[in-house]
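job 3f2a | input accepted
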Amino acid sequence: MLLEALYHVPRDKWAYAYDSRTIHLRVRTKKNDVNSVVAMTGDKYDWKSTYFEITMDKAASDEMFDYWEAEVLPKYKRLSYAFRITAGTETTYMLDSGIYHYCPAPTGGYYEFPYIHEIDVITVPEWAQDAIFYQIIPERFANGDPSNDPEVTDPWGGQPKMDNFFGGDLKGVLDHLNDLADLGINAIYFTPLFKSPSNHKYDTVDYKQVDPHFGTNALLKEVVEACHAKGIRVMLDAVFNHCSEQFPPFQDVLKNGEKSKYKDWFHVNKFPARIENGIATYDTFGFYGNMPKFNTANPEVKQYLLDVAEYWIREIKLDGWRLDVANEVDHHFWRDFRTVVKAVNPEAYIVGEVWSDSLSWLSGDQFDSVMNYPFAEKVLEFFNGGMDGATFSNRMSSLLMRYPQQTNEVVFNMLCSHDTPRLLTRVGGDKRKQKLAVVFLFTYMGTPCIFYGDEVGITGDVDPDCRKCMIWEQNKQDRELYDFYKMMIHLRKKNKALREGRFRFLKADPGNPCIIYERANADIHFTVWMNNTGQKQTLSHPMVTTDWRDALSDEQVPPVNGVMNITLDAYGYRILYRKIAK
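job 3f2a | predicted structure (582 res):
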């Protein structure tokens, strides 16, 4: 076996407490290189009577490695352990002290999980696992109160531009909550609502005032109360990396320069703070001079922003925060942010905007989740024909191995957002591909989110085209697509195995874009069959039991001689399930 490929460390995603009694262990080996991995476990103070061997499951594989997992319930909440790795006639032992071709006497040099402290267990809001999120840009969702429209407002449904307005507001959201409830939505993610000169509101002027074009603070509270009455949670967007140039403390810096009492609230590299040759003399979001970057290490700034976070959690009983440009804010700030928010609402859902591997924010002391853009990119590349089943399996499995299981169960999965082209546009206008991608979204591990209007067929290219007005006239909506979304939402909400169960690819071959995968918990076993080609295909896979049924029609679908054969139309899918006998 290739010893250089063996990897384990007793921390992070490799050894972690899943709950107050359970430890999860992971080991990496070279792909297709070993036959088995056994976790040799026990208590370091009583090894003989607590010794227990666990054969680890091959949970995932990517292009280069296999990943093995085991669940351990130590007798005394602490664990010493080593791994016995077998490849043919070769046996290797991996310990904290090194790799050996013999079994060192326990427990010296063994890995240790010293103790499961409940306070250190990564905990995430339970409700987020059951949530179906719906992302709303308030300015583009519905115009419920024309009296608060901006002075220049374009007719509803016109072409979005970087700086035009259509008059969407919170009253419009309130008017359409029944529509969201009918679809099956039980959580809303609002893009920024606070006072700002732009249509997108990511340049905040007043963090404690709802933008007058959207309504009032009292109206926002009414919206949240109405949502809660319908079982819908609410998450707002927090822009704490930067503000608007119109933000009063920054205006003071522009006016008074180095004499301003707010000069250390920002990263001013040279006074006066201004634009020189197209570049600001102060740090900004990107290179946008109208969005100066906060110095979140400054105690006054930190306290100001933490007060904002706490204010809205208390004032409107907010259920969560989505954190804009979260990776550009210091970790110390986010640790204090979590402490403040969770003190008021322990079940608040904290989602960071990080576009890459986010493990350093997901150790239980900062975020509960992140916006899973890598998920969207890989899923859409696959369903657009950019990779075969084996490559897709490798890449999705690699994503699952990035984080601990409890994080994977609530990672914020979406297929598009206000920062990307629309889903239907991203799949070339092919509704069959859109459906395949959505089936994957709703049967994959994590918390799914729909971008408003995707369910009725709205298209749109890159920003600002993706931020079109919602279509409310039913004769202009794709109602068949709407019914499909409604069906998939119902299926996920009805079946806990699709929200918490094991995910694993069963068939994903090189050169073949068709896949089969499973979700399963202790009660129900699902298999999902997908034909990601433009021709009719028959997919086959061994099935031991004969009690399979179609999850959408409930008709019986028995295998023949231990093999299930499923014929699918071009870009077709089928979802099967069986109840697990107790």
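job 3f2a | Residues 299-316 form the longest helix (18 residues).
job 3f2a | closed
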